[in-house]
Write a structure and sequence with these properties.
Radius of gyration: 18 Å
Strand content: 5-15%
Largest sheet: 3 strands, mixed
Number of strands: 5
Helix content: 55-70%
Number of helices: 9
Strand order of the largest sheet: 1-3-2
Length: 264
């Protein structure tokens, strides 16, 4: 893939692509921007999605380009702290009590809460960039279009499954609505990109469609195209969704090497 050679030449760092089951149920692929090895750009992917690998690598290359193109002060990551996790848990407390009353084992909450928080924050931080990157791939990497379309359709199908009542019944309402509203933005953006209007059908005539439309309008109004603008949009979404207290932005140099890991 030519884009790999270009990135390696411009950054002086090789791109290292590795299969890893560690990110299963977290992401299909990840650019490990917090990787402590300064000689490489590490991309890891879930081997279950090997058939979409060319697209997944192209997408993560987009994240590399976007991050490398930003000024040092704008090269930020979403970070949780003990205080922000406590605030999020307190905010979710009424939802959590309802879930336990509905039959969710109380002991499961300690395992599920980090997944709910981490997944929502990752989605909030990445979705604006993801949409821009997919447009870049479609316009600049025509040889990837076929696998890109198949990969995005697979992703949108999985996202739409989150709208099912059984998922809603065992997910905190705030997490469920925020995640699906952001999924709606992706579905609408990719429906236009791929000329696939059916991608937004699962969200039609629901409360999620209304909330998702608000987020989509913010996306259209976002000032500029770059990592700094993406972060500003994430902050606007966080405020609208009630998630502003769940995380903070930090620069890479402030991420302690001993806590860096593959799905950060």
């Amino acid at each position: 893939m030519d884009v790999i050679s270009e990135i390696e030449g411009e950054t002086g760092r090789k791109i290292d692509i590795q299969a890893s089951r560690a990110i299963r149920d977290r992401a299909r692929a990840v650019y490990v921007v917090s990787d402590p090895d300064p000689t490489r750009h590490l991309i890891i992917y879930d081997p279950r999605f090997e058939r979409h690998l060319n697209h997944l690598v192209a997408h993560e290359c987009g994240h590399i380009v976007r991050f490398a193109s930003a000024t040092p002060k704008d090269q930020t990551l979403a970070k949780t702290t003990a205080a922000s996790r406590a605030r999020a848990a307190q905010q979710l407390l009424p939802n959590l009590r309802h879930l336990v009353d509905s039959g969710l084992p109380e002991g499961a909450l300690s395992d599920l809460l980090p997944i709910w928080l981490g997944g929502t924050i990752t989605q909030l931080a990445d979705t604006p960039s993801d949409i821009h990157i997919e447009t870049w791939i479609w316009e600049q990497l025509e040889h990837v279009r076929d696998v890109q379309e198949a990969s995005l359709l697979n992703q949108m199908k999985a996202n739409a499954a989150s709208m099912r009542a059984v998922i809603a019944a065992f997910t905190p309402e705030l997490v469920w609505s925020a995640s699906n509203a952001m999924n709606y933005v992706s579905a609408k953006a990719y429906a236009r990109l791929l000329d696939r209007p059916e991608l937004v059908r699962p969200y039609r005539r629901t409360a999620i469609e209304k909330l998702g439309e608000e987020l989509f309008e913010m996306f259209k109004e976002a000032p500029g195209d770059g990592l700094a603008a993406d972060r500003q949009l994430s902050d606007r979404w966080a405020e609208r969704l009630g998630l502003s207290d769940w995380f903070e932005w930090t620069t890479l140099d402030l991420v302690s090497p001993e806590v860096r890991h593959a799905w950060q």
